[in-house]
Write a structure and sequence with these properties.
By secondary structure, the chain is α+β, with helices and mostly antiparallel strands. It folds into 2 domains: about 5-100 and about 260-275, Rossmann fold, CATH 3.40.50.10330; about 110-255, Tumour Suppressor Smad4, CATH 2.60.200.30. The chain has helices at about 15-30, 55-65, 90-100, 125-130, 180-185, 265-275, and strands at about 5-10, 30-35, 45-50, 70-75, 105-115, 130-135, 140-145, 150-155, 160-165, 170-175, 195-200, 210-215, 220-225, 230-235, 235-240, 245-260. It has a 6-stranded antiparallel sheet with strand order 6-5-16-13-8-9. A hairpin with a 2-residue loop joins β14 (about 230-235) and β15.
Length: about 280
Amino acid sequence: MAKVGIVYHPQRESARSKAAELESWLEERHHCAVYMGESGADDSLDLVVSLGGDGTMLRAIDKILPSPIPVLGVNFGSLGYLTECDPDGLFGALQQFFAGDYQVEERMTLSIDVEKNEATIDSALTQAILQKHFVALNDLVIEKLDSGHVIRVDVMFNSREFLTYEADGLILSSPTGSTAYSFSAGGPVVSPRMRAMVLTPISPHMLFDRSLVLEPDETVELKMAEGPPAAIMVDGSRKLVVEHGDVVTCSANHTTARLVTFADRDFHQIMKKKFGLQSKRMGD
């Protein structure tokens, strides 16, 4: 008997309906279905099924990390870059999984630590408020709160000063996240099988406006300089606000996200399909 976690998009009726159908299908075959709430994952789960789009996949992975539970993504969204099958193929995919006919693709994640400057908060607050830890599959984003002002961020690599960015924000993405917000901001596409980090400025108000591809063993420190506060976004979810003196430290995480697949995924062909690049020549 297998224990299967279910995460579905709460605003999609089709995903909710498929979740109920999946629960019945599993119970008929003497498996255990578990709806995953906000408390996170049970380490005894054999599989997590995500019913939604890429956003639902990110929520599912956030719930289970650092547990090495594989995730099967079912696409109910428009892009579905991280998902493996469509709703009609779900039960066939599960039959293959239970038969052992599947592969697991490991994706690098980001380890993120936020340290609040003690001078900016009430000293009565506990150390748990001063320091926060997050894990991201796609990206970390530091983004301005006010439309009329840029933020200023001192960037350091391995504790060495690099540059003070003046921009609408900064994106630090994993290879998986290089096709998400970073791509929209002009960043490069990086193969998801690589281990690397990509630093991309958002609308920089400075001469240097290029992305940087960093080694996975580098540590990136982002310290808020004098100026307006900013929001911290982890995989598209707003976590907290940072102000002058607050430091965000990011590095490659030792824990990977594990995505279920049923064939060798050709990254370049998937990219062509998802971005509508079917012609051999751009513009056709």
